Amino acid sequence: MREFARHIFFVPLALCGTLVGARAQSARLPAGTVPIETVTASYVRTPIADTPASVTVITAAQLRRRGVTTLAQALEAVPGLNVVQSGGPGAQTSVFIDGTNSEDVLVLRDGVPVNDPSVANGAFNFGNSGIGDIARIVVVRGPMSSLYGSGAIGGVINLISKRGHGAPHVDYDLAGGFPGQGEGSVTLSGRSGRFDYAITGSLIEQAGFDATARRLAVYAAHRDPFRYKLGAVNFGYTPVAGTRISLIVRARQTGSQYPDLGYPIFDDPYENSFDSNVFFRFGVKSHLFDNRLITELDIAHIQDDRRYLTLLDPADPNQFAGDSGYRGDRTVIQWNNVIRLPDFGPMTDPTLVAGIETTHDTAVENYNASFGGYPYLQSLAASQSTTAGHFGAQATIARRLSVQGAVRADSVSGYGTVVTERGGLVLAVPAIDTRLKASAGSGFLAPSLYDLHGIDSYGYHGNPNLHPEHSVGYRFGFETVLPAFGMPEAVTLRMSYFHQDISNLFEYTSLPDGTSTEENVARARIHGIEAGIGFAPASWLSGQIDYTRTIARDAATGTALLRRPENAGSLTLSIRPIPALSIEPAIRYVGRFSDFLYANSGYPITSGNPSGVGLAQPGTIVNLAVNYRISRALTLFAIGRNLTNSAFEPVNGLQIPGQNFLFGLRGTIGG
């Protein structure tokens, strides 16, 4: 703990240092700032405009208007994110934030880390989640391990559950479309006396598309179906004013099919995946002493069960068959406290944050398969515990300079303590409606249980001596509001530069004795620019243009990291020709990126290029949602996805779903 004590000076120094030269001059938010607050970026409810981190908040209302039905779709247009889906819904879907690895993205559900410990690299699969019970999604880009620990090198994505408010009412969405799809979601929510509740049921069924790229000779037009079922409850009880006892229980099941990305790719109709997840969280949160102290205790358990079943197809040149099972269990106990101090001199809203957390992970894997008649086995049965403490502080100085600092120590069974820090500031320049932002921090990724203890039948063995991956990163930029079109706040500009150095990266290594393992040998250097323009030239028209340029390289060789497009962008519009009608087009562009390339024959391209790596083709995807509100109880909508029938391959050899349409109705009854 002496190391933790040494690092903790980072927080008060970050605060005190900013006092020098600060002028007691009042400032206002930029005229165009949307008054949205976030807790995820600092544990303290703070306006996004005063948050040094790069934050995106997506509400359930926005998702409905845009025609979004899955979590992967919800994240597609978020700047700095690259969503890589290996086929249609249900397929393995990875998210890369600011060019970091997919396992460097920590996913939270109501503040609880939910990455499956039985996944070999610890990455979250975004392909299995709907959004029926989600009230909002918060994306924080940049290293956040000082708040959330392992896995937050690239950033965090917090999925916040719906909660009951007001008189009892029912929100519903029902839709059907072609080819062969239907879905529905119903939420009963409200408040009665001291009780509040939100009960959600969702179902999605799709006949699907063939995820095998149409250009390949092995394409056989086999549909890859998807089925998703969700039941979720969020109960709350307020025994006294300011204290809420909550219980969240969520159960999800998915089933899907996918092609064989082998040698060669085979359009296999017999590869099936089944995935179930149960999430439980019990919490008590109290606002005490006139909100001077907010204390919250949460106990959570997450269970993931996965099965992959492949029946032998005589036509498969790989002769692949398998039946494999995985189970991951995570238990988390969190105690977080927010202490609001009195104003002092030029310092207003000084706030301290302190908390402790303990996590216990267990993973079991039994992988049983055969390739060309040769058996291949993997197995794992291991557990790991982590105990952590964190401390943070933030304040506003001279009513124009917001500062934040945080430090966290994680003690992980097997390799000791890891300390991470983060600091940032926001300077308001009211004369030009601008905010200048800067932040810096460190992050780490603990080895997965498979990295440490996994074995296979071909000589692989985990390395219990692995050290965590470590990163240091920073970001700086500005946000400003400009007059245009005769309106004082018609345009919002945002731009930032980000940089990260990651060391001790895990890499598969062959050993002299013929066996293999993971070792800390690789390094990465990532930098880029994120820019956005929001515009509202008229009351009936608004939009957003986002662009991200990412340079992600192996620090030793200079080669590009896989599936990180150097250029990516999106355009979203909201057109309201009459109050009842909204038209929401969205265009997404993904530039060229490095990947393992497959020829049209279905075989990897290795001639003159033994690694098989090259530049994959870019893609443009066009979506459209139209909503017509008849009354509060009834809105008609139509959704068209991939209107141009793009055959873009986010993973080379596997294409996105083809052109599809969904028609339905939604509304609110009661309340």
TrEMBL record:
Topology with respect to the bilayer: Multi-pass membrane protein
Source domain of life: Bacteria
GO biological process: cobalamin transport; monoatomic ion transport
Protein's UniProt keywords contain Transmembrane: yes
Gene Ontology CC entries for this record: cell outer membrane
PROSITE patterns cross-referenced by the UniProt entry: TONB_DEPENDENT_REC_3
Subcellular location: Cell outer membrane
A Pfam family this chain is assigned to: TonB_dep_Rec_b-barrel
Alphabetically ordered keywords of this record: Cell outer membrane, Ion transport, Membrane, Receptor, Signal, TonB box, Transmembrane, Transmembrane beta strand, Transport
Residue spans crossing the bilayer: none
Family assignment from sequence similarity: Belongs to the TonB-dependent receptor family.
Protein name, UniProt field: Putative TonB-dependent receptor
Organism: Acidiphilium multivorum (strain DSM 11245 / JCM 8867 / NBRC 100883 / AIU 301)
Source organism phylogeny: Bacteria, Pseudomonadati, Pseudomonadota, Alphaproteobacteria, Acetobacterales
